[in-house]
Here is the input.
Amino acid sequence: MAEIGTVKAAIKPAIKPEAEDLKDPAYLKIRDVIYQISGIYQPEEKLYLLAQRCTRRMNALQIRTPSEYLARLTTRADRDAELRLLLNEITIGETYMFRSPPQLEALRTVILPQLIQTKRAMGFKRLHLWSAGCSTGEEPYTLAMFLLEEASKQLAGWTFDILATDLNDNSLAAAKAGIYGEYSLRSTTDALRRKYFKPVDDKHLQAGDQLKSIIRFDRVNLSDPAKMTFLKGIDLIFCCNVLIYFDLASKRKVVQHFHANLLPGGYLFLGHAESLYQIDSNFSLVHFPGAIGYWKAPVGYIPKDKP
Amino acid sequence: MPTVPAIVQPLTAMLRLPPEQVRMQKVIELVSYDSTIAAQCLRMANSPLFGRRNTETVRSAILALGLKRIQAILMGCCLNRIVPADKWAMEATTFWRHSLGCALVSSRMAKLIGYPDPEKAYLAGLLHDLGILVNTVACTEDFRRCFQQAQEQRIALHVLEHQQLGFTHCQSGRMLADAWQFSADIVSVVAYHHNVQSATVAPSLVALVSLSDLLCRLRDLGYGYYEAMGVDLAGEAAWSILVEHHPALAKMDLARVTLDIDGSMEEIISTVDAVFSPQA
Here is the structure.
């Protein structure tokens, strides 16, 4: 695949952006282009990161100056393809499975029992989870293992699926392949590895069919209202360390969509140090042991003792 | 009802004095009263929260920690004495980790929200669960059963106490706090930290400690077991009371407040561990 090839090319010793280069107004324009398309905003102090990522693409394309690259992003017929490749560089993330045990514990002991109770009362026995910004798939596979383990317990007789989306094609391709090394698997127990993975070589494991069968991978731009409006009936949304790339206005839009995507009583989970403060007041902040979630209260719910 | 250790009377009297009337020499005497107390003061003074300086004498520890803090430590040590080692339902260190954790979070939160007396908040946090000591001593077996069931059912201890014993550590704690003539605001915290709306004395201190207690239990500094709970802090009565007394809070990012405390949790836990490290 062309993308894989270019990523490898980018690993070659690259020209590092100098402090001088950062002053190039072309970077500010590139930033604006990215913001318009994806809602991902790079503040002044993070501009060096954008420059680094652009430099990788510039090296791959053998382009010398940021303004040449800007032209490539804006004026050529294949500019959308290049923009996608740049977004792939920008949204690259590293994570591992079972990164937040307290969150899973809260799901197991508080949230699932609550969801099961409300949904059963309405005659439903289905759960829909969404990993929004799933990167290379560690999060959806973790959730899949969690759900499958609960399937013999409190979720007996229930059906469930996970939608896993990302903007980054390379990440999505890796997520679909589901091949992981020790870094990604470092918190995954031997029992779970044996149960849900098959060996690829002596250093890598691949997610088995049981895991893959409940996950649907898709490319979704969280700033694309058409696609966001279409997603409905979700019980739990996980969007960890994705909104950090967005500026306030785009965050608001995305979070408003999340609120509409969720069923009443559903939860939104953000990354460890993220907050919805001044972004959205429709969600209630709920604390769990070692974790924080945002709750979409059912219609007619009156919070106790609110001033 | 546990009897008053000899040291408590002069100590509570001293705690009621304005700081400028407390005599340094008297405090040094009390701290040096026995080696455990002195060691705890030194460990606290040398802990990460106080910048790990090399404090070697009781006098310099007192200077580093401040008189109020030292008095709180003394009080904690005295209380520890009233429970015979074989009577504990939970581990003694678990109890003190929670109490000390709550003290540190209370004073942290006091500073964060502009509560005027962070050292008072510290003492209140340290003593809020006094009643657990009373229950441990006065109805050892029943309380032990109660604690085990709370642990198994993953629910709050005071809920189980109410079901099983007919009273909670708030009520038994209040009796001890009254008997030992603690100041009215501390009595109020002991009595109402699980029922904040009923507090008429020092309501904002009660609310502050109640939230700190909740945060500690949500952040691994509880009673040593997992309490299955989801808490909407903004919907808690304690939060409304705090907002009423500190209007600036209404504009605060609640998640950030917790994240800030989360950020200092590591320091708090290592301080607690430093203070409760196995006796040398």
